[in-house]
User: Fold this.
Amino acid sequence: MIGKLFVLSGPSGVGKGTVREKLLANNDINLTYSISMTTRKPRSNEIDGVHYFFVDNDYFEKAIKNDEFLEYAKFVGHYYGTPKKHVEELLKEGKNVLLEIEVQGAKQVMEKCPEAITIFMIPPSFEELEKRIRGRRTESEDVVSQRLSKAKKEMSLKDNYNFLVVNDTVENASKAIHDIILKMTK
Ligand code: 5GP
Assistant:
């Protein structure tokens, strides 16, 4: 049986990564995460091949030319993309695959894979989002304000998605997504 493709989007800082980790920790929904490739530098806690495949610009642009991505986008000055081959293999193996990607990439997936189930995660308020992005303390003020203005634009695209989930707490949001995946894979 072929697995289902799920797309999780939402503004930077909304907590997609934390919710995704919780979902995968208690995994009774046959879910796998597709590791993305990026040209962004790793944060201090990030490991190559676990959080992302960290590559340089040349490597990424060659992969674009070779049509290796299901989708890719530039986000705040860096490339991010989903390697196609791995996702296809996982789906063929019958696994449900989760892509945690920003809105431009999600749009490409909606066009290429109309059967994909799309989820948009929103913060309880914009103030809370700002607090979360600043609380991370890993980025310069310049990058923080770029991410915040990007978040406003991203939020306006939420109606393009099949499901909307509010991340008020990690427990609530991961349970809501868990239930969506369960329902859609029955
Ligand atoms: P961050 O730098 O905070 O890890 O990620 C920045 C944004 O890029 C987040 O919204 C994240 O979901 C998104 N992102 C991560 N991987 C991919 C990917 O493979 N493709 C696209 N389009 N966006 C991604």
Observations:
- The mean pLDDT is 94.
